[in-house]
Amino acid sequence: MSIDLKTIKHISKLARISVDEQRAEKLVGDLNSIFDFIEKLNELKTDNVEPLTSIAETTLKLRSDEVKSKNIRKQIIKNSPQDNEDYFVVPKVIE
Amino acid sequence: MSDITKQSLTELVENIKNKKLSSTDVTKAFIDRSEKSEELNAYITNDFISALDKAKKFDQKPNFNLKLPGIPMAVKDLFCTKNIKTTAGSKILNNFVPTYESTVTENIWNEGAILLGKLNCDEFAMGSSNETSFFGNVQSPIDKNLVPGGSSGGSASAVAGQLTPITIGTDTGGSIRQPASFTGIVGLKPTYGSCSRYGIVAFASSLDQAGPMAQNVKDCALLHEVISSYDPKDSTSIDFKRNHFSKELTNNIKGKKIGIPKEYRVDGMPKEIEDLWQKGIQYIKDCGAETIDISLPNTSYALPTYYIVAPAEASSNLARYDGVKYGFRAKGENLIDMYEKTRSEGFGAEVQRRIMIGTYVLSSGYYDAYYLKAQKVRKLIKNDFDEAYKKVDAILTPSTPSSAFKIGEKTNDPVSMYLNDIFTVPVNLAGLPGISIPAGHDSKGYPLGLQIIGKAFDEQNILNIAYAMEEKISFKNKITDWWIK
Predict the structure, then answer these.
(1) Which of B301, B332, B415 sits opposite A91 (nearest CB)?
(2) Residues 6+ away with beta carbon under 8 Å from B426
(3) Mutating which of B316, B325, B416 best tests the A interface, going by the most A Cβ atoms within 10 A?
(4) Which residues pair with B195 in a beta bridge?
(5) Which domains, and CATH codes, for chain A?
(6) What digits encode the pLDDT tens for the residues B125-152?
(7) What pLDDT does A33 receive?
């Protein structure tokens, strides 16, 4: 299997990372060498193996949904690159 | 004063409790040495002024019942610290100030320790040499232009260079054990679910664990006892009774059965590593324990499995960095353009590479071939360990396939960089505890480590084995203070 430039551009769209031509070319090489290495897994037959989805063999605990941090709105907003009073500001979405 | 920074954590705690030293004395000494150590680039952010303040306050009203009374400590910059910038080594979090404290650091401050600052690491803990940090590479105290390992490279450099008496790192595929091995210190990666992940910047949630990095095994046991706790804020935290690891520490390991897995004898492994391993086997025997040859047949599949599972989880975890609620934002023509430019300019090359791998293996049409396949192989790897632990109490391996390398030596070849973690990654995939202890030097005088892998929640046992071996090895780290003018 090999990953081409078109695939890199498709993945970069999905990952929401813009890549220029030069970066894309470099990524083609990098990802192909990494996937060559990953292909080793195909040596193993795993048809009857249950996938391991969680390493902690316990069921997730439920807890009541309570607000524990109060009055931190201002502090949270302060970390925003752009805000307006109590709101996060993003580039205009609706024309 | 200069002698203070040479003392172990255990000695410092004793000396503070006996009033031979004050917290101010100790804190001043580590700040002084840290300030002289800028060339190591171990810190991203220092909090020295406030640390001295806290030390003075401690001395005015000392509580000697605490486990870390007035002990200054720098921590990896992957742990959120309330009101103190937390960057994860990334440009995208360059100006992020958490409104909350990670549980692990909270536990540390509750036992009387004082934050010195935040330590450099690979960006989002993705790296094995600390060269992917936005804040520059870290120098190893062992030699100039040598990597300290990664991702907890700043942490390793700071402990080995005596900038902090002890520290914490995080380990997703070897990020505590590999840098510990490279810098001649002790590093413990606890069982998954033992230390809370709450407030740790997430990389791969099914693999990430916090753990101590220390000058010796006893210090390591003491800090582990402080940080390991059940935490309802982490849904994978496990509620079980924790040991008093340092109190219960013993060098009596007579009759223990230690497995030696033949698959860890990999192609191209330097003879020095093989020799070190053989020496380790001899030490085990000298301690009255028994070694047994075992097989972990799927070992060679661990690294390819890891490079599917970890990037897949990372690509999901790092989706949150969109330039809206916190962190760096690039200008864009519209919302999507803003996202794409923010992530392109905010993440470094290695992080982007891993997000791309993760996105690909989770994408439509490839999920079964890669991600599901990797989860199945992960099961086989865990089964290997389960099978081995029917016969043995712990497993002994080298920590890394080589000693530390030069800065820049492996940056252009991602796969050769990934191979550094060949002996540590299987432990994360199986959720087990592993400890790296310094065990010797190579021909260049660089430290080499041995790894002891335990059964799940059997940290006490591997700490005991490490403690017994440490006594036999009597390793001396060769720190020349080359960076201090």
Answers:
(1) B332
(2) B296, B299, B302, B381, B385
(3) B325
(4) B228
(5) 5-43 (1.10.20)
(6) 999 999 999 999 999 999 999 999 999 9
(7) 93
